[in-house]
Amino acid sequence: MHKILWMIYSFCFLLLSCESKAQIYPGNTWSSMENREAMGWPNTACSEFTRFIADSTNITGLVLVHKGQIVMEYGNISENSYIASCRKSVLALLYGKYVDNGMIDLDMTLEDLKINDVTKLLPIEKRATIKDLISARSGVYLRASNGGDFRRFAPERGSVEPGSHWLYNNWDFNVAGYIFEQETQSNIYDEINSQLALPLQMQDWDRGLQKKSGNKELSKFPAYHMWFSTRDMARMGLLMLRNGKWKEKQIIPKDWVHEVLKQRTSYLEAQKSVPLLKKDGLDLGYGYMWWLIENTTDLRLKNAYSAQGALGQNITVYPEIDVVLAFKTNSIYRRRNSIQTQMKVIRKAVEIYNAP
Questions:
Q1: What is the CATH number of domain 43-351?
Q2: Which of 60, 246, 305, 326 lies 20 to 30 angstroms, CA to CA, from 93?
Q3: Smallest Cα–Cα separation from 296: which of 321, 267, 335?
Q4: What are the angstrom distances between the C-alpha of 234 and each of 18, 83, 201, 240?
C-alpha cells in the first residue's frame, strides 16, 4: 500500500515538475512563438485582428502573449506612456508583500491611520478601513485631487456604512497610495522598481518619468500616476497569470494574488451603482483594484480579469487559456479609445484562439 502511495506521489511530483519547466518567461527580451498556428492562433485570423486594431481602434501598442511567448504585436510596444487607472492595479500588487509581513493591516480604519483631508471626514467616514478603500467600498465621497471616476453617482455623504456600497471614486485610490507610503515608509515608485521592474527584467521602465500630481486645493492626496511600455505591462500580466511567481521566485505572495482577484463587488451591484457600466459590452465585477470579467458563456473568458485605464490602457489576463493581452493608447498622439472599444478588443483577441 505504501509503495502504491509513493508511486502516486512521485508521479504527481513529476507532472508538477514538468509543468513548472514548461512555463516560459521572458528574459531581457520576449521570445516570439515560432508556429502560432499550431498553437491555436490561425494566421488569417491574426491578420484580421490586426486589421481591426488598425482600422477600428486608436491603439498605439499591443502585445498578445500565450504560454509566456508573444503571439502577435502591433504598433510601438517599447515607448513609455501614461497608463491612467491601470496604476491602481499596479498598487494592488505592491500591497501584497506588506500585507503578508504584517506591516499593513487591512482592517485599520482611517481614524486609526489619522487620515483627514481639506474637507474634514465625517465620523462615519472615519470608520472606513484600508480594505474598504482598495475595494472601492469606503463610503467616502469626497472629491479627489484628480478626475476620471464615477463620483457623480455617489449617494449623499454619510448615508452609507463603509463597506456596504461600491463606488469607483479616485479619493479611495489616492488615499490607498498615501497609506501605502505612510505604513511602509517607502515611495511607491521605488517599490515598483524593487518589487517589479528589477525582478521582472522590465525592458523600458524609467524611474525618472514617474510623478504624482493633483489639485491640492481639492484634496491633499495626489494621484500616483505611472508610465509604462506595453511589453512591460504584459510582464505584470504574466506575473499575475503565474500567481505572483516569476521563474523560480515568488515575487507577490500567491495568497495575495488570490485575495486581489476575489470578488468584492458583483457585476450586478456595480451596474446598479453605476448604470453606465451596463453599456460597456462585458459584465465587470471588482476585486482589490482589479476588474473581474463575469457572466460570460465564452469559456476563453472564464475567470478573466483586467487592469483598465482611461483613453485605452489595458492589461487583461485569461487564466483558462494561459493568455495575457496588453495594449495602450498614447495620448501624446491625440488618440483615445472608449471603454466599449477596449471591451471589443478584449473579446476579439481570444475569439482568434482555437485550442489545438
A1: 3.40.710.10
A2: 60
A3: 267
A4: 24, 13, 12, 10
Cβ atoms of 71 and 349 within 8 Å: the answer is no
Specify the pLDDT at position 335.
87
- 297: buried, middle or exposed (CB in 10 Å: 19+, 13-18, 0-12)? exposed
Tell me the C-alpha to C-alpha distance, in Å, between residue 44 and each of 38, 48, 345, 353.
13, 6, 17, 12
Backbone dihedral angles phi then psi of residue 122, each to the nearest 5 degrees: -80, 160
The 10s digit of each residue's pLDDT in 176-187 is 999 999 999 999
Q: Are 325 and 306 in contact (CB under 8 A)?
A: no
Label the pairing between strands 313-318 and 323-328.
antiparallel
Q: State how beta strands 227-228 and 305-309 pair.
A: unpaired
Q: 351 in the Ramachandran plot: left (φ > 0), alpha (ψ -120 to 50) or beta?
A: alpha
- Is residue 109 a contact partner of residue 139, using CB atoms and an 8 Å limit? no
3-state SS class at 331: helix
Q: What single letter denotes the amino acid at residue 97?
A: K
- Average pLDDT over every residue of 262-282: 97
Does the global pTM surpass 0.70?
yes
Instruction: Provide the residue ranges of all domains of the chain, joining segments of one domain with +.
Output: 43-351
